[in-house]
Design goal:
This protein is an alpha/beta fold. Helix content is about 45%, strand content about 10%. It has a 4-stranded mixed sheet with strand order 1-4-2-3. A two-stranded antiparallel ribbon has the order 5-6. The radius of gyration is 18 Å and the shape is globular.
């Protein structure tokens, strides 16, 4: 199976990964539920910084002009929320955990290059961001449950702010309800946080069981 982050357009139709993006979008379009895609990657520790790259370049290039204000807002809000989640983390070799001012790895290799999974989301109209997280920060997520919770909540808070920031029910502190058309279950911010925490915990357990593998 082709790595979903190294694909060319002619491979999309036979890729279970790419087809899953289309199903993801179609599923939530039925209920007019807004979606976003956070693609979490790992990178080696850098010698001069402990920065997380937020790759939104595909949106900056491919989304229409009338959506660029949304892209900027998405990027800025995400950076602010994640920065707050990183604040109480210990230094690594005297370097703080930070969000990179400019993403070194931005998830976009150009129109004729390989297509990352984030790029594929964007061409399907899905707002997407590629996280490139240094090994030291991933290790901290594995050993620090409080940090893991803050990190998960930063993502969920971003989703709620970019899509529901102007709704009175949210400003007044009431619960925002998102309905899932498969189960008819009401999705509140608290439940979204819980589900995302479960996903990150599963990733944490996977990384613990694969610690012998060499990082990329």
């Amino acid at each position: 199976m082709t790595d979903p982050n190294y694909m060319m357009p002619h491979e999309f139709k036979d890729s279970a990964w790419h087809q899953s993006l289309k199903k993801f979008k179609k599923h939530f379009e039925r209920t007019n539920t807004p979606i976003m895609h956070i693609d979490i990657h790992g990178k080696k520790n850098r010698k001069n910084n402990m920065d997380i790259d937020l790759g939104v370049r595909a949106m900056e290039v491919l989304f229409e002009d009338d959506k660029q204000a949304f892209v900027d807002y998405f990027h800025n809000i995400l950076a602010v929320n994640l920065s707050e989640a990183l604040e109480d983390c210990p230094l690594y070799k005297l370097m703080p955990f930070r969000i990179a001012p400019e993403a070194e790895l931005n998830g976009y290799w150009g129109p004729n290059g390989i297509h990352t999974f984030t790029h594929q989301s964007v061409i399907n109209g899905i707002p997407a961001c590629q996280f490139e997280i240094p090994m030291a920060i991933r290790h901290q997520l594995m050993v620090d449950d409080s940090f893991l919770d803050r990190f998960a909540k930063a993502i969920v808070t971003t989703y709620l702010q970019i899509y529901f920031h102007d709704r009175p029910s949210l400003r007044e502190g009431k619960q925002v309800v998102i309905r899932d058309c498969r189960s008819n279950e009401d999705y509140t911010p608290r439940l979204l946080e819980k589900e995302l925490s479960h996903l990150i915990l599963a990733k944490k357990m996977y990384e613990q069981s694969h610690r012998h593998l060499k990082p990329i």
